[in-house]
Structure formats: C-alpha cells, structure tokens
Amino acid sequence: MARGRVIKLDRGYPLVKVGQMDPFRCEHSTALVKSERVRSVIGDFVDVALPHGHDNGIILSIEPRSSQFVRRDPAERTSSQVLAANFERVIVVEPAVDLNVKRLERELVLAHEAGVAVSVLLTKADLVSDAAELAAVEQRVRDLAGGSVEVLSMSTERPETVEAVRAWIPEGTLSVLLGKSGVGKSSLVNLLAGKHVMETGSVREGDGKGRHTTVSRAIVPIPGAGDVVDMPGVRGLGLWDADEGIEAAFPDVAAFSSQCRFRDCRHEAEPGCAVRAAVERGELASVRVESYRALKDEVDQMRRKREEARQMRGEKASDQRDSRKGAFRARSRYNRGSARR
Ligand code: GDP
Ligand code: ZN
C-alpha cells in the first residue's frame, strides 16, 4: 500500500501519482464504494494498492480534505459536485480589459467558500490603454474584493510580470486557477512552468455549442514553486451552500449587515436595516447590495429545491453530506474576515 495524490481524472478514472513513479489509473475499492459516498477528485490524497498483474491501482481510502472546491452539479441541479481538494489558494483569473464585475463577484464567492487564501490575477494587461488605466482597474478590483485579497496584473507580452505570481504558489502547495475559458490561464501556466505544458488559444471547454473538452484538467507542477490546477469556466459555476463565501466576498456589505436589527435581515423592507441605511448615506454602492442579494437568493433557492428533493425521497432534513461539510469547515477557516453565520 502507498500514499498518492489524484492528479487528474482520466476518463472518469482517478490518475494517481505515488512518489516519483509514473502516474497510474485507479479504481475505488468495492469496500470504499459501499461504505462512503465520497469519490476521489483532483487533489485528493489516497491510499492505494497496486496488485501484481493489474494495470490499475485500487484506492482503499481517501484522506479527509483540508479544503474543497464545490459547485452545484450542472447535470443534476439538486446535488453538489466537488471539483478539487486539498489546495491552499484560489487564484481568480480575469482579464484586465472589459472587466466583468458580476462574474468576478461570483468567482470570489466560490473561491472564498473553499475557506482558503484568495487572490485575483488580472491578465492581458497589455490590452489596457495605459498604466494609469491599469492602475485604476486594479484599484477597482481591490475595492471590490476587500483587504484580504491580493490583486496583481500580468501580460504575456511582459513575461517578467508573471514572477510576482510565483509568491502565491510556494513549494508544497496547490493553487486552483478559477476563470473563464480564454482569460489566459494556459498562457499563465506555460509562463510559470517555463515551457509549453498547456494548449492555448483554442476553445476547449464545452460551451453549449457542441464542442467538448479535449484536454482534461490536471495538476501541473511549477518548477521551483508549487502546483496549479485549472478549473472550469464560470458558465458551470452555480453556487451551492455559499453563505459564508458570500459574506467573505462582500466584506463591504457584511460590515453593515452585522448591524441590522434582525439577524436574518434581507435588507429589503425590514426596520433597522443598516445596509439600506448605508446605501442611503452613500457609504455603500447599491449595485453591490443587489449583487449580494441575487447571490443570496440563488443559494436560498437551491436550498429550497434540495429540501423538496429530499422530502420527495422521504429523507430527513440535515443529511450526511451537510454535516460532513460542517466538520470540514471547522478545520479549514483561513484568511477570512469576521463573517457571521
Ligand atoms: P485559457 O483558455 O484561459 O487557458 O486562455 P489561453 O491561455 O488559451 O489564452 C486565450 C487567448 O488569449 C490566446 O489567444 C492567448 O494568446 C491570448 N492571451 C493570453 N494572455 C494574453 C496576454 O497577456 N495578452 C494578450 N494580448 N493576449 C493574451
Ligand atoms: Zn438589513
């Protein structure tokens, strides 16, 4: 038996790397399949057996995760899907030109929900008209993301701009790259790796028009630094349980909502609403409150649907998965403001 790490899902099978050996495909042991609902994902640490005469290894157990990236399952809307595990940082990647604020807000929520360090990388800085404009975009993102989130910009035209990104990915850590297809993640990884490790420029993810992923995501080691792994575009990034992620991604709103008279204030018509008062005083932008509310509504709606589905199956309220998540969260708080539940 050996300890390894899932570095890729190879046509659905975990590809596991053990020490310096070539990675090999694995299946989950029958006992594991029967006893646990959890299946291994990219980043999982696993105990594997390599039976003689078999091509495939057998995953005997999956170690508890220090962090995980969860989205709503795009196929089955009342369940969640874990896309990566055991990473130390999420790097949200957005182009510096034509900044899409709504998308950035959603990505920040998903990133914070993982309970790890979060940073934003603005790509394609060369396409911004001048240095002052770039500084303004960076500042706008800093204001929006709050003090706990570092913001950098880079450009493939100036490869030295990638060097600062390395500090986010120290040796022995894994960083998740989160951003829409085409934002320049592969170009970034190639610059970091100092060689061509990922295809660039082509549309690889399914975009609803019949094209499909041809390159599957894998953990990429960066020489002299840690590892990175690419995540799917925001199109597939529906929120799951993300209340804490929302609080952390909206520190400006959260700062006032903690002063509302009602703990569960929706900042709509309730008396004593500190959020609405702050908007009226001009201390908080109303667009931010609208985004916050829309994301909260999405999470609430999912929770209701999930509850309905559960009742249809005749199950009790809090299910096993949610209580597992609670235990997991208690261990993984990191770089997070004083978000109130
Ligand atoms: P990915 O889908 O996020 O992996 O994005 P890619 O790395 O494949 O880049 C998408 C397109 O943007 C490619 O045509 C790249 O050449 C281009 N691109 C990436 N980074 C930059 C940059 O810094 N400046 C400019 N001008 N183009 C870039
Ligand atoms: Zn309120």
Automatic annotation (TrEMBL):
Biased composition (Basic and acidic residues): 300-325
Subcellular location: Cytoplasm
InterPro entries reported for this sequence: P-loop_NTPase (IPR027417), Ribosome_biogen_GTPase_RsgA (IPR004881), RsgA_GTPase_dom (IPR010914)
Keyword Iron: no
EC number: 3.6.1.-
Region (Disordered): 300-341
Keywords: Cytoplasm, GTP-binding, Hydrolase, Metal-binding, Nucleotide-binding, Ribosome biogenesis, RNA-binding, rRNA-binding, Zinc
Keyword Nucleotide-binding: yes
GO cellular component labels: cytoplasm
Stretches assigned to the EngC GTPase domain: 85-235
Cofactor note: Binds 1 zinc ion per subunit.
Functional description taken from the UniProt entry: One of several proteins that assist in the late maturation steps of the functional core of the 30S ribosomal subunit. Helps release RbfA from mature subunits. May play a role in the assembly of ribosomal proteins into the subunit. Circularly permuted GTPase that catalyzes slow GTP hydrolysis, GTPase activity is stimulated by the 30S ribosomal subunit.
NCBIfam families cross-referenced by the UniProt entry: ribosome small subunit-dependent GTPase A
Assembly and binders: Monomer. Associates with 30S ribosomal subunit, binds 16S rRNA.
Family assignment from sequence similarity: Belongs to the TRAFAC class YlqF/YawG GTPase family. RsgA subfamily.
Name of the protein this chain belongs to: Small ribosomal subunit biogenesis GTPase RsgA
Organism of provenance: Berryella intestinalis
Gene for this chain: rsgA
